[in-house]
Write a structure and sequence with these properties.
The protein has about 260 residues and is of the alpha+beta class. It contains 7 helices and 10 strands. Strands 5-4-1-6-7 form a 5-stranded mixed sheet, sandwiched between helices. It has a 3-stranded antiparallel sheet with strand order 8-9-10, with no helix packed on it. Helix 3 runs parallel beside helix 6 (about 165-195), helix 4 packs across helix 6 and helix 5 packs across helix 6. The longest helix has 29 residues, at about 165-195. The chain is elongated, with a radius of gyration of 23 Å. The protein starts with a strand and ends in a 7-residue tail after the last helix.
Length: about 260
């Protein structure tokens, strides 16, 4: 068995407010006309074919700010997931969804492990930019984040508010490409993040890499102050794993270093 990994990306409608100027103006709560809400979302199970992609938006709702129906659908997917992957999802997507779940009186979905490709990028690399557009342009071959040139800038969101179906179609394509390019980027990053993550979900004793390979070779040792563990490298993607057995005998553990 493998973990159920869900890749997600959401789009939100903006806050509408009355302001007195366009420069350095603080917006008080009583100036807000409409609060933000979820416009739509896209999700995909990691490893599924491209045609098995989920998408929903509010285009058919009487009130475009009523996101309860589309939230019910993504709630079910999150409830099934073992791992949820997104880009900047820890700061944005997950918290935004949780806020709307709470707003509509929905219970939290079943707990899941979160993996954020923006955090992975910051943790292991030093790129010029950690934006999804930059990273997918550099490292993805098949899918890259779209620029929605037909409705540039904020105009796509504004046209959706006007119920422009062409803008909704553009939003759907834009959202789907975010998830498809995210999946490709996640696969590129995986060898640097964890080699034993998927292995924890296997019911047999065979060691499995995150890339799906079961072929490893010994590659030196990992040391702590009182431990020594055999290291392994995946022969497919190069990710590293280590054995859980401490190779230092008990007699040697009695000797400890001292500070001066």
């Amino acid at each position: 068995t493998k973990p159920k990994i869900l890749l997600i990306d959401i789009e939100t409608l903006p806050i509408e407010a009355l302001v007195w100027s366009i420069w350095q103006d603080n917006v008080n709560l009583d100036m807000v006309i409409e609060d933000w809400s979820v416009l739509g979302w896209c999700a995909k199970w990691y490893g599924d074919s491209e045609d098995k992609i989920y998408y929903a938006d509010v285009r058919n709702e009487k009130n475009l700010r009523n996101d309860k129906n589309v939230l019910k659908q993504i709630w079910k997917l999150l409830d099934e997931a073992d791992i949820v992957v997104g880009h900047n999802s820890d700061s944005f997507d997950i918290k935004k969804l949780n806020a709307r779940f709470l707003k509509h009186g929905m219970k939290p979905p079943s707990s899941y492990k979160r993996m954020d490709t923006k955090k992975i990028a910051k943790k292991h690399f030093n790129f010029t930019s950690n934006k999804l557009s930059h990273l997918t342009e550099k490292f993805c071959v098949k899918y890259k984040k779209l620029k929605h040139s037909k409705f540039p800038g904020i105009s796509m969101w504004l046209e959706c508010l006007k119920r422009n179906l062409a803008a909704f179609d553009c939003m759907e394509e834009y959202n789907k490409y975010d998830v498809l390019s995210l999946e490709e980027l996640f696969t590129v990053f995986l060898p640097f993040e964890s080699a034993t993550l998927f292995n924890l979900y296997n019911e047999n004793d065979e060691m499995t890499c995150t890339c799906g390979s079961t072929k490893f070779k010994k590659n030196g040792f990992y040391y702590t102050n009182s431990s020594k563990f055999q290291k392994y490298s995946c022969m497919s993607c190069g990710a590293e794993a280590r054995d859980s057995k401490n190779l230092i005998p008990k007699s040697k553990k009695k000797l400890k270093g001292t500070t001066r």
